[in-house]
């Protein structure tokens, strides 16, 4: 078995910290050269490769021993990445519930749901926000499931096959387990690369079973849902924040900028404006016209013309930002683009380059960028839903980018043809960008090394819930006939037969998160690296010596005589053996022993002060020095991503709480009507609760105020709930007995406004933010079980 390096000179020693700071982007790992630029021999390449492997195997353990600044910032980054992975999973689960409840609450608002259905919806709330930890009920089952999930993780073809079998109704449950549990460590190279291998298998099958390339990756299928879900993980969110957030926020600041170019809508607005200004319509302006008549209207054309120019300017700024940030694009997304190009060329050898680019663009824009542009609030790129005009502009920008990436079709929306110059001027530019996206290296050899590392670990485990285990088992069982009909499935067959029938899902409140130990029934731990990786014992000793002396130098005080340049390796080892710390003593002894062994083997000599080894150690230390700045920079970026994900989590939790309270109110009323038909129910009045103008402004409830600054301190609001689901908001001025105005609100109306993206609630003097009002009412009144 051959393992050759893919590390370029600038990163070839970076694996010393790759495990602790996140895997090195493989897109920058290309060639095998020496520090002087000359090609290395295969044996030398293997040595560098295995050195990288050895140094990365126990990076986290070493960080526990080494207390220098680099170790501390690496640990901070590692912890942050773990939090992002964990929080991404929680958000995915919450989003599933919100999607389900969105549709059910819509029926409640329209009074189309029976009490029995309301009870079924209520069952979705029978769980706490956090799943408690626990242990597996049965040790024998623990071992069996540990074998099964190790097989599923390390041989992605099984999951790929399962993904091709499941229905749309089943895919979300499977994706939760696959994307956020089995391969949930989004910044760890082995899991990421195994997940991408699974994608390659799924895409390959999709290409094989799709006769026409024009229909590839278009329909809403389990495969397309997988691809979209992949882009929603931490690295994808980070990219969107960096590339799109500023552009979108700049745009939505212009709330009154109307760039509508649909002639019929422009004509209707023009009619409305004329009526408001003059009170009547002139004879030559009929109220209703066809789309064609509106497009031919001279006044409409005059309104649209400057809008077209501005739209193309805005779209160009979006496009320039996307192209300029090519290197920010997550490696996994670029690698999927590369597979789409490669598979298209193999399956359709006659396909032209621009056709291939439309398929790449179909994934990159349709599944990744455009959803974030159209609904930036759901991607937490902005703080609130944009107002009507910016929202429409963002939709048009997304359509323009999609037309640019794909073959444009104006059959359904002929007015978009007026933007064809944007497509014509940028077609070559976008095709080059889409091809550049694909220019990344592969990871197969580094994955081979990562798998050896996994086999060498004694504590490989998966944090997974009981219901995820049982649901995955149930899907494997349901589709076993198709899954086990392929080649090399005997191991999966054995494990499924031993496990027997899949257990039923436990109630949500009984669900537990467990740490499931992973290990293979058919592969033992790797103890002899030299045999496993087809390298010599000299290589193993060399990489171990390099790792030990790097650790010693990172641990010794900078003022120590042993740390002075030029390095004296024997002096470093001797110094370590005189220290009271037993760890340092053992490393010092082992380092000296390795120097002697390597010298006896003729690999190094003390005549030149062990120059080859010393230079490698120096290079590693230089790299680690520059790595600290990179780690700190990455940490800063990911802190922003984590904050965004946490904010999104809070938004989803608030949404669920609102639904929960609303459902409680509806069910209470329904049950009350059944129990007290014909009787007047006595309702408890809650409130009034008082809020100052300053308080509501600070909390974002007031998003715009017409009250003069010098009077705001005297303004306050009272909110009362005279009956469940009904609220009265009154605006008061200090010193006056009566309120200035009063507004009656129904919870149904607020929820409907939120569903329709109507973000503003106008109180004449102030404009409230609808989601923030709902959150405020939920916080103040939900505890009373009143609405």
TrEMBL record:
GO terms for cellular component: cell cortex. Pfam families: RasGAP (PF00616), RasGAP_C (PF03836). Residues 10-21 have a biased composition (Low complexity). Residues 63-90 form a coiled coil. The keyword Coiled coil applies. Residues 1-41 are annotated as: Disordered. SUPFAM superfamilies: GTPase activation domain, GAP, RGC domain-like. GO terms for biological process: negative regulation of Ras protein signal transduction; signal transduction. GO terms for molecular function: GTPase activator activity. Residues 27-36 have a biased composition (Polar residues). Keywords: Coiled coil. Residues 190-406 form the Ras-GAP domain. InterPro entries: RasGAP_C, RasGAP_CS, RasGAP_dom, Rho_GTPase_activation_prot. This is Rho GTPase activation protein.
């Amino acid at each position: 078995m051959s393992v050759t390096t893919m590390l370029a000179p600038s990163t070839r020693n970076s694996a010393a910290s790759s495990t602790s700071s996140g895997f090195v982007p493989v897109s920058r790992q290309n060639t095998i050269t020496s520090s002087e630029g000359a090609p290395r021999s295969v044996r030398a390449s293997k040595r560098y490769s295995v050195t990288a492997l050895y140094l990365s195997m126990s990076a986290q353990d070493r960080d526990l021993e080494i207390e220098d600044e680099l170790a501390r910032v690496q640990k901070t980054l590692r912890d942050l990445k773990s939090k992002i992975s964990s929080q991404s999973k929680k958000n995915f689960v919450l989003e599933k519930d919100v999607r389900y409840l969105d549709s059910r609450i819509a029926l409640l608002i329209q009074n189309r749901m029976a009490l029995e259905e309301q009870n079924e919806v209520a069952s979705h709330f029978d769980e706490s926000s956090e799943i408690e930890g626990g242990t597996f009920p049965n040790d024998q089952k623990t071992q069996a499931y540990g074998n099964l999930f190790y097989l599923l993780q390390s041989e992605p073809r099984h999951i790929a096959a399962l993904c091709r079998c499941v229905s749309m109704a089943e895919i979300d449950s499977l994706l939760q387990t696959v994307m956020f549990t089995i391969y949930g460590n989004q910044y760890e190279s082995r899991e990421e690369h195994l997940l991408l291998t699974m994608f390659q298998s799924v895409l390959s099958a999709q290409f094989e079973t799709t006769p026409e390339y024009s229909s590839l990756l278009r329909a809403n299928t389990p495969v397309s849902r997988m691809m979209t879900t992949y882009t929603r993980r931490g690295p994808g969110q980070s990219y969107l924040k960096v590339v799109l957030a500023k552009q979108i926020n700049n745009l939505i600041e212009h709330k009154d900028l109307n760039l509508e170019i649909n002639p019929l809508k422009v004509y209707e607005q023009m009619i409305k404006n004329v009526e408001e200004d003059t009170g009547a319509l002139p004879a030559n302006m009929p109220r209703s016209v066809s789309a064609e008549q509106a497009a031919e209207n001279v006044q409409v054309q005059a309104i649209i013309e400057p809008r077209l120019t501005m739209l193309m300017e805005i779209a160009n700024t979006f496009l320039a930002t996307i192209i300029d940030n090519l290197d920010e694009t997550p490696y996994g997304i670029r690698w999927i683009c590369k597979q789409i190009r490669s598979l298209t060329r193999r399956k359709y050898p006659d396909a032209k380059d621009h056709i291939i680019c439309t398929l790449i663009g179909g994934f990159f824009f349709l599944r990744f960028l455009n959803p974030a542009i159209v609904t930036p609030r759901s991607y937490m790129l902005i703080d609130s839903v944009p107002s009507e005009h910016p929202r429409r502009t963002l939709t048009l920008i997304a359509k323009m980018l999609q037309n640019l990436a794909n073959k444009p079709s104006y059959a359904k929306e002929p007015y978009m043809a007026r933007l064809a110059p944007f497509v014509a001027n940028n077609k070559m530019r976008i095709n080059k960008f889409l091809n550049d996206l694909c220019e990344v290296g592969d990871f197969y050899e580094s994955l081979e090394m990562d798998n050896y590392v996994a086999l060498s670990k004694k504590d490989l485990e998966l944090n997974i819930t009981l219901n995820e285990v049982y649901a995955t088992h149930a899907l494997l069982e349901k589709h076993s006939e198709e899954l086990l009909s392929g080649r090399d499935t005997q191991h999966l067959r054995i494990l499924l037969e031993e496990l027997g029938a899949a257990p039923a899902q436990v109630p949500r409140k009984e669900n537990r998160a467990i740490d499931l130990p992973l290990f293979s029934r058919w592969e033992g731990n790797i103890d002899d690296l030299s045999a496993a990786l087809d390298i010599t014992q000299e290589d193993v000793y060399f990489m171990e010596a390099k790792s030990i002396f790097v650790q010693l130098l990172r641990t010794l005080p900078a003022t120590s005589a042993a740390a002075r340049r030029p390095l004296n390796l024997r002096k470093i080892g001797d110094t370590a053996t005189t220290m009271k710390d037993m760890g340092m003593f053992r490393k010092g002894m082992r380092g000296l022993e390795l120097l002697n062994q390597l010298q006896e083997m003729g690999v190094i000599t003390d005549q030149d002060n062990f120059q080859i080894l010393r230079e490698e150690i120096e290079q590693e230390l230089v790299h680690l020095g520059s790595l600290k700045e990179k780690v700190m920079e990455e940490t800063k970026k990911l802190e922003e991503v984590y904050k965004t994900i946490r904010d999104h989590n809070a938004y989803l939790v608030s949404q669920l709480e609102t639904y929960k309270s609303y459902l409680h109110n509806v069910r209470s009323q329904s049950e009350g009507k059944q129990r007290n038909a014909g009787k007047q129910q006595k309702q408890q009045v809650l409130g009034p609760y008082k809020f100052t103008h300053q308080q509501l402004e600070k909390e974002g409830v007031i998003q715009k105020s017409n009250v003069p600054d010098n009077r705001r301190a005297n303004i306050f609001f009272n909110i009362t709930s005279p009956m469940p689901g009904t609220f009265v908001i009154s605006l008061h001025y200090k010193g006056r007995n009566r309120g200035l105005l009063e507004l009656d609100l129904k919870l149904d109306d607020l929820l409907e406004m939120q569903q329709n993206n109507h973000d503003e609630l106008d109180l004449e003097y102030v404009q409230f933010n609808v989601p923030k009002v709902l959150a405020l009412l939920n916080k103040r009144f939900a505890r009373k079980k009143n609405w």
